[in-house]
Amino acid sequence: MSATGPASPPRLDAGSEDERDLRDQLAQVGAEVVRAGLVVGSGGNLSARRPGDDTCWVTGAGTWLDRLDRPSFVRVRISDGSSEPGLVPSSEVALHLATYRARPDVTAIIHLHPQMALLLDALGERVRLLTTDHAFYVRRVGTVPFFPPGTAELAEAAAAAVADGTNCLILSRHGCSVLADSVELAHKRASNLEEAAHLTYRALALGRAADLTDQPPPAVA
């Protein structure tokens, strides 16, 4: 305590520990999803924000998800898409911003290119949720038709598709968008989505996909 009284609490700005922690969490997830094969090269992008905040951290354009550090992220205003001069945000930033506007409850978005989920979608096969983890984390899988990556059309279609509470969305011939109220939960959902896709594919290869049923509603509850 100073001679003039108790110190004022630190401002929560771009340099505070609370804000930087979001970037650390995203960087860790980036490395883990690359190791899991959910994205390759400089594909995919990540974002997070504090609850109710009008700004979010988004991976910068061209960044590799397994090489992220704090300077790899750009702070972007959700309401108008503005950002400070310097690193350019990901080309998919519109997807993230439109989703945050449609879902005030969401504080983390993971956009990846999971090969098995995309293959099933291209074949016209839906991902079956076979285990209790699939049912709990994924709950349901939405889809949107193909729109060119980085376009306003894709961002608007994706935001509309998750407005009903859907948290796992397949973007046809492109990738997935997974939402949550924490970075950790978004990661768990993305992992379970691809695991469910792998099991669905194995059932198709065995000629037994017709025998699969999703976990019943009590499992979700």
From TrEMBL:
| InterPro entries, alphabetized | Aldolase_class_II_sugar_metab, Aldolase_II/adducin_N, Aldolase_II/adducin_N_sf
Please list the GO biological process terms of this entry.
pentose catabolic process
Give the GO molecular function terms. aldehyde-lyase activity; metal ion binding
**Which UniProt key words apply to this protein?**
Lyase, Metal-binding
Task: Tell me which GO cellular component terms the UniProt record holds.
Answer: cytosol
In this chain the Class II aldolase/adducin N-terminal domain maps to 24-201
UniProt xrefs under Gene3D superfamilies: Class II aldolase/adducin N-terminal domain (3.40.225.10)
**Segment Disordered: which positions?**
1-23
Q: What is this protein called?
A: L-fuculose-phosphate aldolase
